[in-house]
Amino acid sequence: MSDRFVVPPSVHALPVEGAPELFAVRRIYCVGRNYIDHIREMKEADERDPPFFFQKPTDALVQNGATVAYPMDTQDFQFEIELVVALGGGGRRIPVQAAKATIFGYAVGLDMTRRDRQREARDRALAWEMGKSFDQSAPCSALVPVSSIGHPHSGAITLSVNGQERQRGDLSQLIWGVPEIISKLSQQYELKPGDLIYTGTPAGVGAVVPGDRLVGEIDGVGQLAITIGPEEK
After folding, report:
1. 40, 86, 199, 204: which has the fewest Cβ within 10 Å?
2. Which residues form the Fumarylacetoacetase-like C-terminal domain (predicted)?
3. What is the pLDDT of residue 1?
């Protein structure tokens, strides 16, 4: 095989508050349906159902302050503000009581969604990837280490569009807490250092258009801001 087909793999990473090193990201896992008010808003699941997991490609990461191109193949591009957990450890079948020891830190994330494509997938009993796992669909702020903030159990989680608040919830409203999420996810995948977990969104999700500025914030964790740009041609 010609050498021109052999290239080193790209490393996708996030900055760490207060440190010069970067956090290399291995995988991005997302939790579906983890706030009751969002389940009611979407009208698509039993409130008693456990959350399920899907993935986004690692190269879908977007740094804080970036411009996100309006994606192809959608007329309903929506935001979902979420607490992100970054793992510094891992394992299989991790007990709930041992899950916190695997956490490196936390961040503010956006699960950007092609809602029309997601609904089509739901109606046809297909996987959610067409609505969730596309280019630039995973904006994320810098990571804040556990050593700096501990483990946030409560605190406001909000998102504004062009200065108008659109989402507001509290981390205490998570149906499944972070240790439970890690434990359940580790029953399906072997978790490893570098994994990110987006933990679900409160109610208030909605559509954005080019020119909109989104600012998400989680008390004690940080802030994430992006601008929606035109579709790339």
Report:
1. 40
2. 28-228
3. 44
Is residue 49's pLDDT more than 90?
Answer: no
Q: Is the pLDDT of residue 205 over 90?
A: yes
Average predicted confidence (pLDDT) for the chain: 92
Strands 196-198 and 81-87: antiparallel
SS (H, E, C) the chain: CCHHHCCCCCCCEEEECCCCCEEECCCEEEEECCCHHHHHHHCCCCCCCCCEEEEECHHHEEECCCEEECCCCCCCEECCEEEEEEECCCECCCCHHHHHHHEEEEEEEECCEEHHHHHHHHHCCCCCHHHHCCCCCEEECCEEEHHHHCCCCCCEEEEEECCEEEEEEEHHHCCCCHHHHHHHHCCCCCECCCCEEECCCCCCCCECCCCCEEEEEECCCEEEEEEEECCCC
Structure token digits, residue 90? 């891992």
pLDDT at 4 over 80: no
User: What's the half-sphere exposure (Cβ side, CA atoms, 13 Å) at 11?
Assistant: 8
Average pLDDT on 139-152 reads 97
Tokens of 131: 């609505």
Q: Which domain holds residue 219?
A: 3-229
Tokens of 172: 């205490």
The identity of residue 29, as a single letter, is Y
